[in-house]
Write a structure and sequence with these properties.
By secondary structure, the protein is an alpha+beta fold. The protein contains three helices and 20 strands.
Length: about 230
């Protein structure tokens, strides 16, 4: 899940803040995130469990990088300094419970760069970021759980088999997807998977990269572009 932020943001359990995190490890008034002339800064507000930036405990005001990992108590946030939202364009951060961790996959389908962001929760949705290579600003699209988990499964297999000499690397069988995707019914079948594939292709098509979701006849689906993975489990 992604959250847009303004130039000054109170972070904590209090509903009066701009970024509310309802987790027991988070204090009511936990931290403050603000934009300054020199960039984005975060400051811990004497919280019980602390604020961490890229693994180091925040002491005073700490500058954030363009893709810093921030921990608020036991909740991990991925801060993105340049995400473009429609119709407005504030920066954005993606949040995840640290118990599951934050996952990221980078995809490079030609001139467009994609980044899949979400938690390791197998029932959750996530965000798909896109930008032209060489551009600094990301555009963001939210993906519902089924579409996100389908793309996540394909990214996972593609990154695991990145060095395979096969021309169809990272293929996931349709029957496996029917078992593993978070369908409401336990009797999901291959037609249900095809419906999710069509919806995901539609979302990719709006970015102009629907061709990366390829089919291996009689087998399943795979991604036809390079994929690399990274995750945070602090």
């Amino acid at each position: 899940m992604a959250h847009a932020v303004g130039t000054k943001n109170a972070i904590g359990r209090s509903h009066d803040g701009q970024l509310v995190i309802l987790a027991s490890s988070v204090s009511r008034e936990h931290a403050e995130l603000r934009k300054t002339d020199g960039g984005w800064q975060i400051r811990d507000l004497s919280s019980r469990n602390g604020t961490f930036v890229d693994g180091a405990r925040a002491q005073g005001r700490v500058m954030l990088g363009e893709r810093s990992i921030v921990k608020i108590g036991d909740v991990a946030l991925w801060f993105l300094a340049d995400v473009v939202h429609e119709p407005v364009s504030p920066p954005s951060i993606a949040t995840a419970s640290v118990g599951g961790g934050l996952l990221r996959f980078s995809l490079l389908p030609g001139p467009i760069e994609l980044c899949l962001v979400g938690t390791t929760d197998t029932d959750a949705g996530g965000a798909l970021l896109s930008r032209s290579q060489g551009s600094e600003a990301w555009s963001e699209r939210s993906l519902p759980p089924l579409e996100f988990q389908l793309l996540r499964a394909l990214c996972t297999r593609a990154s695991e088999e990145a060095s395979s000499p096969s021309t169809v690397r990272g293929c996931v069988q349709t029957k496996q997807l029917a078992r593993d995707l978070p369908f409401q019914s336990k009797y999901a079948n291959e037609e249900n998977v095809r419906q999710v594939v069509r919806r995901l292709r539609g979302a990719l098509g709006e970015i102009g990269v629907d061709e990366i979701l390829a089919v291996a006849p009689g087998r399943g689906y795979y991604l036809s572009c390079p994929v690399s993975a990274s995750s945070d489990r602090r």
